[in-house]
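Input record (one chain):
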Amino acid sequence: TVQQPTVLIVDDSLTVRKITGRLLEREGYRVMTAKDGADALEKLLETVPDVILSDIEMPRMDGFDLVRNIRADDRLKNVPVVMITSRLADKHRQYAEKIGANHYLGKPYEEDELLALLRGYTGHGT
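The corresponding structure, as predicted from the sequence alone:
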């Protein structure tokens, strides 16, 4: 059996979680969602996903704090993290890379670009 890769979508926007979740489910991914970084860390206690997609600006814990927590955790430190954000300034991109984000996409993202990235990280659908 081919294992379904799991993707955790972390975004405070319900719409973004739903739209991205539907796209990934159609492509054969198992989708988990979290409404902010704190919620994501709770979910990550139970499941280590294949890839994490995270917004930056969220209540309680933002995407930068989430990435720092993930990179500090031995169980999670090798999970690829893709930041998806409307913050397109170079300083945000550079900071995300410095703390360990693997990729940085602007909102709205190109579906094909996101799916190609996920295929690269998971080998799914190649």
